[in-house]
Amino acid sequence: MWLQREVVLRARRRGFHLVTDEVLAALPELGEVRVGLAHLFLRHTSAALTVNENASPDVRRDLAAWFDAAVPEEAPLWTHTLEGPDDMPAHVKTALLGPSLTVPVARGRLALGTWQGIYLCEHRDAGGPRSLLVTLWGEE
Amino acid sequence: MWLQREVVLRARRRGFHLVTDEVLAALPELGEVRVGLAHLFLRHTSAALTVNENASPDVRRDLAAWFDAAVPEEAPLWTHTLEGPDDMPAHVKTALLGPSLTVPVARGRLALGTWQGIYLCEHRDAGGPRSLLVTLWGEE
Amino acid sequence: MWLQREVVLRARRRGFHLVTDEVLAALPELGEVRVGLAHLFLRHTSAALTVNENASPDVRRDLAAWFDAAVPEEAPLWTHTLEGPDDMPAHVKTALLGPSLTVPVARGRLALGTWQGIYLCEHRDAGGPRSLLVTLWGEE
Predict the structure, then answer these.
(1) How high is the ipTM of this complex?
(2) Mean pLDDT across chain B, nearest whole number?
(3) Structure pTM?
(4) Which chain C residue has the Cα nearest residue B68?
(5) Which of A30, C7, C65, C95 is disulfide-compatible with C132, CB 3.0–4.6 A?
(6) Nearest to C63 among A41, A92, A133 (CB)
(7) Do C2 and B35 touch (CB under 8 A)?
(8) Which chain A residues touch C62 with a CB distance below 8 Å?
(9) How many Cα neighbours within 13 Å face the side chain of B74?
(10) What is the pLDDT of residue A38?
């Protein structure tokens, strides 16, 4: 079984956001997969995907704080400044976090750990909606 | 061919640890795969997986030293401190390294380079055993 | 359909390099895949793969500048210095960026976003040619 579908994640403010429910809502066919994988690919270069704690909002805030401090907007490093001060830091953060995730599927569900959630890491101040290409494959 | 199996990695102290042999020992069916992939997914948010040098223990020590310096425990950034000073840095390090690996399989073996080994990156002082979900698929 | 092939990326100087065209040229069979995935795996521990902006060379230069500043050659951290001052920083950068990419394939093409390109991140001063193992699978 193969399924490939674009999911448009609604625009979010800069920061780390839990999107597990939004992804699941777009994949009703997940329940038919006995064993397989779901590949999520963000088709952008200034936002990323990761997996992290799904409970405390503090974790998402602190993640954003660390990345903003480690990749500052005002730095003598940057020469690519034409698209705004948040653009080049967004490219670096995206490289650090990565554009994709592969999550195992078991008995019709994403086999995430108890505390794991899927994060959209939005690095632009006004990134707009984000295109996520989901590919699901496995055995029914 | 599809195979999915939980492998419990034994508890390790904080640091970077080679686990290639432990993963291989849990996958005797690998020898049956002519061409395929092995996906390793750590079901936690304070430990990660990566691939790096399999020879010198210095590399693993220096990796830990860099990550500890880049993501310090004592930092005014952190608000999520309830679970101990090593917890929030562990979430950041996990985001930087990622929870999963996909390794190609060729002629019944992981097609790692000569110097590549699979690392468990344990970021907690007392993380305990770690649940790794392995999915193997390909052609026999 | 399964295809697995080694692609040797020609030697490049230290830095971030667009290699999308070089990868595509090695995969003429891509056009036969209706829906699938391409997995790229670099069989090294001092070079990495990522996806980032395919247009401005400034982005690639600034990415290199940030990584060089964040993981400096001259640092009291390093004990693994036998293979030269660029070696241990190369291992850390590789851990941060990762050795592999999985890119969706749709209607015979890599389903990259408009601005996305595949990067070889070469972290050694004289890394030489790099072995990339490509695995392609999907439905024809």
Answers:
(1) 0.97
(2) 97
(3) 0.98
(4) C77
(5) C7
(6) A92
(7) yes
(8) 77-80, 88, 91-92
(9) 0
(10) 98
